[in-house]
Amino acid sequence: MEQFPHLKFVKKLEGKPRLQGGGKPNPRTEENKNNRQGHSQKLQRWTTEKKEHWKESFDLREQNNLASIDEEIVPIFIQVNPAIIDAEFDLEAFGIEIISEEEEGYIIGASLDNFRSLEEKISDFITSERGSGNIANFWEIFEGNREDWKPKHILSEEMYAKWENIRDDEVYNLEVSIAFAKPIGKEPDSTKRGGETRLRKYREKLEERDELLMQRESHFQDFIAHYGEITSSLVYLEDSIGCEVSITGKGLKDLVVNYQFVFEVSEIEEISGIDGTDSELPEIDLEVKPPNDDAIEVGVIDSGIMEGHRLISPSIKQGNSQSYVDGDTSTADQVTGGGHGTKVAGAILYPNGVTGLTSPYQLPCFVRNLRILDANNGLKHNYPASLMQEIVGNNADISIFNLSVSSKSPHRTRHMSTWSAVLDKLTHEADSLFLISVGNIPFPDIRYYLSNGKEYPNYLQENYCRLANPSQSSFSLSVGSLNGGSFDDVNWTSLGGQGDVSAFSRIGSGIWGHIKPDVVEYGGALVASKNGLNQVREHQSLAPELIRSTLHGGGAIGRDSVGTSFATPKVSHIAARLKQLYPDEGNNLIRAFIAQGARLPNGHFLNPVRSSIEHFGYGVPSLDRVTKNTEHRITFYNTGNISAEEGHIYSLKIPEELRGQGDEYDILIEVTLAFTSQIRRTRRRTKSYLATWVDWSTAKIGESYEEFKDYALKEIEEEATDYDQDARKEMSHFDWKIKARSDHGTVEGINRTNSSLQKDWTVIKSYELPEEISLAVRGHKGWDKNKKEVPYALTVSIEILGANIPIYQSIKVENEIEIET
Question: Which residues form the active site (predicted)?
Answer without folding.
Answer: 302, 340, 565
